[in-house]
Amino acid sequence: MLVPPAAGIEPSVRGQQTQRTLLVVDQERDRDHIERAFDDEPVIIETAATLAVARSSVDEIDCLLVPSTVTDNSGMTSDDVAATDRSGEHVGWLETVKTDTPALPVVVLADEVTPPLMRAVRTYEWTAVVGRDEPRERLVTCITDLLERHRLTSLSKRSLASVELTGDAVALVDPTGRIQFASRSLRMQFGADDDELVGTPWQELFTDDAVSHLESVALPTVGEGWRWTGTCTGQRRTGVTFPVRVRLGGLEDGSLVFVVTEADASASGHDD
After folding, report:
1. DSSP run (H or E) holding 229
2. Among 8, 63, 2, which Cα is nearest to 220's?
3. One domain for residues 176 and 258
4. Which of 7, 77, 124, 178 might form a disulfide with 98, Cβ 3.0–4.6 angstroms?
5. Which residues of the chain carry a pLDDT beneath 50?
């Protein structure tokens, strides 16, 4: 069965802009410059005199902007910090912040972007570095892109969680043909452990005959922008086969969405 794609249901990459809060640490002297940089962005700029003050407010902000020379009250002098920063060795404060709030986007503002500093920053998720002398547009782009990626990732996690709540047996397959996400219902249906299916080819869910049918009939249909529904034969991890009804759709990036339900034994043949 061919099903036309529903119009207007695909969300845009960038949703409606919402107001974000950027907390800038130890940069009162640069506040006007930073605020001007974000004139055209829905961003509220707040400042904190010290990192300790900033850490007490992380639950109320969306992003933290910190100079690489800041300290976490370790007793180092500013000269000591500047010297160690130039060698890329002083990033202890970053470890402290990311340990406490690993999902908080953090941008490091550096006097000098050294390779050791870059390696240290890349150690942590949701962290980026910008040179102080770079154009302010670069700072804006870095922060807004980081926030947008963070928003989309959070949205994806919520979407996958909602799939779990529906109880549908769903598999999300990436453009390379490997399973990226398998709902609990689907894992139970195919007799797989929690992460056993992730990274495996989608073809392992079906018999060879069913795979041939899906590749020759269903995938071309999806490639033309339609959704396909039909029956074929699934294969559990134990090798046991069973009749399934498959709903198959495609996403703009080439990913596939399989919704698989167990069918009556009389429906084990192909139906398109």
Report:
1. strand 227-235
2. 2
3. yes
4. 124
5. 3-16, 74-90
CA 43, CA 141: separation in Å to the nearest integer? 13
| Statement to judge: residues 26 and 118 lie in one domain | yes
pLDDT at residue number 87: 38
CATH number for the domain spanning 88: value is 3.40.50.2300
pTM value > 0.85:
no
Q: Which CATH number does the domain housing residue 183 bear? A: 3.30.450.20
Q: For 96-131, what is each residue's pLDDT tens digit? A: 888 888 889 999 988 888 888 888 888 888 899 998
CA 242, 248, 254 angle in degrees (round to 5)? 130
pLDDT in tens, 53-99: 888 888 889 999 988 777 655 443 344 333 334 434 446 788 888 88
Whether 134 maps to a domain, the answer reads yes
Give the chain's domain count. 2
Rounded Cα distance, 153 and 159, in Å? 10
Q: Which residues of 90-121 are buried (b: 16+ CB within 10 A; e: fewer)?
A: bbebbeebbeebeebbbbbbbeebbeebeebb
Quick one: which H or E segment has residue 154?
helix 136-166
Residue 1 in any domain: the answer is no
Coil, strand or helix: which one is 206?
strand
Q: Specify the pLDDT at position 85.
A: 41
Range of the domain at 205: 167-267
Identity of the residue numbered 78: S
